[in-house]
Description:
Layout: E1 3-8, H1 13-24, E2 31-38, E3 41-48, H2 51-57, E4 66-72, E5 87-88, E6 94-99, H3 105-114, H4 127-135, H5 140-149, E7 155-161, E8 168-173, E9 178-181, E10 186-189, E11 201-204, E12 209-214, E13 217-222, E14 233-234, H6 250-256, H7 258-266, E15 270-271, E16 276-277, H8 286-290, E17 294-299, H9 301-318, E18 322-326, H10 327-330, E19 341-347, H11 353-364, E20 368-373, H12 379-383, E21 387-389, H13 402-420, H14 426-437, H15 439-446, H16 450-460, E22 465-470, H17 474-489, E23 492-497, E24 515-519, H18 525-536, E25 542-547, H19 551-556, E26 559-563, H20 571-589
Parallel strand pairs: 17-18, 17-19, 19-20, 20-21, 22-23, 22-24, 24-25, 25-26
Antiparallel strand pairs: 1-4, 1-10, 2-3, 2-4, 5-6, 6-7, 7-8, 8-12, 9-10, 9-11, 11-14, 12-13, 15-16
The structure holds fructose -6-phosphate (F6R).
Amino acid sequence: MCGIVGYCGPKNSTGILLDGLKRLEYRGYDSAGLAIQRSGTISAVKKTGKIQDLRAVVPPTLAGNCGIGHTRWATHGGVTDLNAHPHLDASGKIAVVHNGIIENYVQLKARLVAEGFVFVSETDSEVLPHLISYYYEGDLEKAVRSALRQVKGTYGIAAVHADEADRIVGARYGSPLVVGVGDGEMLLASDVTAMIAHTKQVVYMEDGEIVSLTPDGFVMTDIHDKKVNKKVDEVTWDLDSIEKEGFACFMEKEIFEQPDSIARTLSGRLDAEYATGKLGGLNMTSRELLAVKRVKIVASGTSWHAGLVGAQLIESVARIPAASEFSSELRYRNSVVESDTLYFAVTQSGETADTLYAMRELKRKGARVLGICNVVGSTIARESDGGVYTHAGPEIAVASTKAFTSQIAVFYAFALMMARMRDMSFSAGLKYVKGLQSIGEKVGETLKQRDRIQAIAKKYCHARDFLFLGRGLEYPVALEGALKLKEISYIHAEGYSAGEIKHGPIALINEETPSVFLVPDDSLREKVISNMKEVKARKGPIIAFATEGDQEVAEIADETVFIPKIDELFQPFLLVVPLQLLAYFCALELGRDVDQPRNLAKSVTVE
Ligand code: F6R
């Protein structure tokens, strides 16, 4: 979704803003722009397309010590240069960039038009510079505060005024904003990736806060102008983790990083002495955990698939009824909240609007909601009642990969902990701990199938449709495989329980429609083999992912990829990785923009 970056300090801001915008590319956008303050004027440049398209039209002479930049993901108004941000007021002295949606912009615009203000774009955001200019009496911060009192909706904004040298005013309500504290320079951005090249000292803004930045420091206030004291946090990862490090794209890097990212997630969270899981951040006593009678998980997209794996595990391992639901559905469903139900909000970004609002709705009803988040300091991480950071490291590619395996790793540790408080024996617990400890190595072995999977992708990537089929714990993995393929290759793909195809989807089978079967060596293998035969009888091509040495599967399938042998409980880790590779290589073969697929955004901050 949209991204913001601002800089004030001794350096020329133009290059810093362009580089910062480049780092925000992964969020998904369709146009970009910047506004530079210099000698009592504002110069703005905006362009549809990529950052290099913007870079190409920025005049080499454009320089100034203070500026703001933006990547736009269109909501109100088409993808045009005029609709791109920054938006300026009529005098050209105030420039504003905005993330979020101004819900009452129609009314505000009508009022401003009646006052003689002229609008040039079709966006909701353009009301902001006009409204700020309406209230402006020589103090930008004051004018921003007055303007925002009139606004309904969500925003993260950055504003500059031509007459207030080296000053940026930012405000947050529902759309993240972070202050970067440098040495004699300050930054403002919608996420830390845009500023990590300059500083690791950051201050996360809360809803309702307004910040005024100058090169020497910042002052944070609330909407009523009351000073707010803020803590400076240190970002624990470095620039390398947001570089490609020799890989062709971020998605490939993030797939191959999984042996390490899973190990980071599990580090310190498995206790061999007591054969259990250890999740300190839950903020719950053993007695409270023992009183949990039900677990419900809310999430979107890939995180929802991780929730489906988590729910099955919690139910089968810990024997606690569990379910995973789309956050976008739960929010408006008037769901029943019971005091002995424990909720999880699962999210890589920690900013997904659907999940955030679902969590707030649950909390309003009195639920205890724990977060499973990757981004440290994100809104869901801060508003949840406790939770677990996945520590997968920054995920830059739009398609989620390492976040998924880290999210399920958390559920494996949680299920173990809950099971060991109930009826799992010490020896079974120890076997489980050892199994989990071996995952990283086994994922590493699975990644060696890279070339084989690339060859399969080459052969099948021109198919119009794909089916992904699995049962039990492999069913959510099949859903995830289908989502990966469709979002980055644009091939239509559906995930189903293999047992369900006879109830409808089998009508789609023909010689041109490949079926991807997840058929590892587990208690449902025979059943899945029967489902494969049903497809084979109808001449459907079969790509099977099976346990090494399974010749019976290899004889039925047209293509077989073998995964290492592992306890059946842990197979989702080893099966999702080759599906990520399959999607990746299909997209590559078809010449798609793997890291930034069309129409998608990394962090979906609108409903
Ligand atoms: C798929 C994907 C999305 C996200 C979804 C939730 O590859 O990335 O489906 O999983 O938008 O995002 P988070 O996990 O940030 O809440």
